[in-house]
Amino acid sequence: MSARVLFFSVLFCILVADRNNTAEATEALEARVRAGLETTDNVWVGQQIGLTVDILSPGSNFTKQRIYLPAVAGALILEDAVTTIYLSERIGGETWQVLRYRYPMFVQRSGTIEVPPFNVAFEVSAGFGQPNVAFDLDTQSLSLSVRQPPGVTDLQNLVTTTAFTLNVNVTPNNNDLQVGDAVTRSITRSATGVSGMAFAPLPSHEIAGVAAYPDAPLIDDSSNRGELRGKRVDTTTFVLQAEGEVNLPALELQWWDPRAAELHVETIPALKLNVTANPALQSNDESKQPAESQPFKWRFLLFAAVIALLGWLAARHLPDLKAQRQQRARIRAQTEPARFKQLQQACRKNDAMLAYNTYLQWVAAEQAPASAQLDLPALKSAREQAQQALISGDSSWQGTALAQATTLVRSQQKRGHSSSGRRQLAALNPTDAIDISPS
């Protein structure tokens, strides 16, 4: 047997043995998924409950996670507020890696709430150098019993929280008003453990002699050390069109404290205005004016009419223009340049949690770099360092490497070197883990 034949025979045996070992490792690799509720005892209408989704495997490096959340009758799941964390468990004497997703879920009615099984797809590697194994699994169903707080008369506006704040601001804050004046009222509601989207719209009232122009509501959520706080601001401009008394009735808002098991009532005060005639809009009695003053009188009336028309147009359209500007600002905040700017600011603060969350928002934006660039060594290394700092709570993490790597990748993408493939996010990416068609 020649040396060449011997060499290729040995090489063939090695490849076959390696393939068999890989196949055995792939067949032996296990994975599971499970869903859970952080609490099922003493749950009240409007309360926030954490819906958790766990991906478990003794392997490592979860990729391509896709969670198909179901529609839950009687509950609202905030997909955009998902958070992730890495854990580990001992199962059967073996250490399993756990990737946990947490979604805030708000129950909106009393009775039994059912969360049906839903699909979770992902890939996991058996170890370094091993191929990924794809899994497509279903969670178990969940259910909980929800109670209605006693004494509640308005479930639509009920808020369940341990701390509720109501602020009402009226401008101008006086009763010296005339026909053609405008009054603006802003109502701010905020609560702990509640998203701003959970606040119901306030009822509107038709008032004789008054034109109401509501702004688009301003909704904002913030988190302090993991505690959610939601806010909603409703602003309405009232244009006074006739003299007399204007009465906008008071409105009571109920909120339930689940910790103290107490029902509270906050009141939006009644709006009472006394509108008098506007001399600039009143026409003079023609019989009392001398004939020679007629041209001056008509010029004055025409001037007053133009001023009144301009005032009416401003009051009519300024709220719309303001709402449009706010809408455009919100849209700009979701663009790739705005999210990239937020990422760079977070990196300069050396806050691993803030930087990683803003990174996830950036790569989920339209026109963000493609997956081939997101996996470049420099960015991959910087991203993994941020992940490790986030998981371990390392406060010494510096954001310089992540800022420089993302800047380089973005500049390459802007020069037209980005891959044409579909974008793929990092393992901890909550946005990529969601695939829900809009309702």
Q: Quick gist of this model?
A:
The protein is α+β, with helices and mostly antiparallel strands. It contains seven helices and 22 strands. It folds into four domains: about 1-30; about 30-145, Immunoglobulin-like, CATH 2.60.40; about 160-285 and about 290-330; about 335-415, no CATH class.
Write the layout of secondary structure elements.
Elements: H1 3-28, E1 32-37, E2 43-44, E3 48-57, E4 60-67, E5 75-77, E6 83-91, E7 94-107, E8 111-115, E9 119-125, E10 132-138, E11 142-147, E12 159-160, E13 164-171, E14 177-178, E15 182-192, E16 210-214, E17 218-224, E18 227-240, E19 244-248, E20 251-257, E21 262-268, E22 271-276, H2 294-333, H3 336-348, H4 352-363, H5 371-374, H6 377-392, H7 400-414
Parallel strand pairs: 2-11, 12-20, 14-22
Antiparallel strand pairs: 1-3, 3-7, 4-9, 5-7, 6-7, 8-11, 9-10, 13-15, 15-18, 16-18, 17-18, 19-22, 20-21
Helix pairs in contact: 3-4, 4-6, 6-7
Describe this structure as you would to a colleague:
The protein folds into four domains: 1-28; 31-145, Immunoglobulin-like, CATH 2.60.40; 159-284 and 291-331; 336-414, no CATH class. It is an alpha+beta fold. A hairpin with a 6-residue loop joins strand 9 and strand 10 (132-138). The protein is built from seven helices and 22 strands. The strands form six sheets. Strands 1, 3, 5, 6 and 7 form a five-stranded antiparallel β-sheet that branches. Strands 13, 15, 16, 17 and 18 form a five-stranded antiparallel β-sheet that branches. Mean pLDDT is 80; it is low at 14-26, 284-289 and 417-439. The protein has helices at 3-28, 294-333, 336-348, 352-363, 371-374, 377-392, 400-414, and strands at residues 32-37, 43-44, 48-57, 60-67, 75-77, 83-91, 94-107, 111-115, 119-125, 132-138, 142-147, 159-160, 164-171, 177-178, 182-192, 210-214, 218-224, 227-240, 244-248, 251-257, 262-268, 271-276. 24% of the residues are buried. The longest helix is centred in the last third of the chain and has 40 residues, at 294-333. Helix 3 runs antiparallel to helix 4 (352-363), helix 4 (352-363) packs across helix 6 (377-392) and helix 6 (377-392) packs antiparallel against helix 7 (400-414).
